[in-house]
Amino acid sequence: xxxxxxxxxxxxxxxxxxxxxxxxxxxxxxxxxxxxxxxxxxxxxxxxxxxxxxxxxxxxxxxxxxxxxxxxxxxxxxxxxxxxxxxxxxxxxxxxxxxxxxxxxxxxxxxxxxxxxxxxxxxxxxxxxxxxxxxxxxxxxxxxxxxxxxxxxxxxxxxxxxxxxxxxxxxxxxxxxxxxxxxxxxxxxxxxxxxxxxxxxxxxxxxxxxxxxxxxxxxxxxxxxxxxxxxxxxxxxxxxxxxxxxxxxxxxxxxxxxxxxxxxxxxxxxxxxxxxxxxxxxxxxxxxxxxxxxxxxxxxxxxx
Length: 304
Ligand code: CP
Description:
Layout: H1 12-30, E1 44-49, H2 55-66, E2 70-72, H3 87-96, E3 101-106, H4 111-118, E4 122-128, H5 134-148, E5 155-159, H6 166-177, E6 181-185, E7 201-203, H7 206-209, E8 215-218, H8 234-241, H9 245-248, E9 256-258, H10 271-274, H11 281-300
Parallel strand pairs: 1-2, 1-3, 3-4, 5-6, 5-8, 6-7, 8-9
Helix pairs in contact: 1-11, 2-11, 5-6, 5-11
């Protein structure tokens, strides 16, 4: 694998299982007293984030450091992007300094594919517009496997703002490649205009879906991406699609609650529900470091 732009680049079920096997070994590394291996010594990884991030950016940085890679931080807000430098000139300038991997987050769908065309370095898509977020899908799948033993056959409900969600697109690709039974639950206005080719069921009735699912995956209401009034109000959204304390009673006791973060507590998830033991949001973040170690190792490690 030269680049990780889409979940499809990983190579279906076999490729994802290989990521999981590597992740298992990097979880073990992460639990050591000195959680560091020399696997990527001499390699350089740079972050190119045109959108804000806490989890993805920091966990890639932690992953690269645990593999002994050198890292270069690039902050769009204090860079020559502010003077109008283009994306192409920016990435070619950074590459000229000698980098092996560029981790890109950009508001425009497809931007990481353009970057991959312009440079020789490996490129990782850390989220492009509404399109894809492949490492989030890998860490989500890994978290389900850790808790339930397998993703195959697991009944997963993805709930909320599907229309604007790159996480939902990548999760559907990964979960279905691994054999999960995926249901999207949202008001019609928060679904994409067409779901042709999506291997999913659709429901508008969260109360009917919750008793049947083994994982309920809540999406953040992406208010920054909404340019039109797609819901009457956040209060009505919560009444119809929020995982409230009342709805918790509809779930089996073993059902996992997941969220990619950042959470809007009190909107898509009640504050007290987010803090229950069955909520594995913090595990998702923890697993994200080891999954991203596996991804960087797959992209850069074989050349050692
Ligand atoms: N889940 C996720 O991508 O979070 P960040 O925006 O904080 O990276």
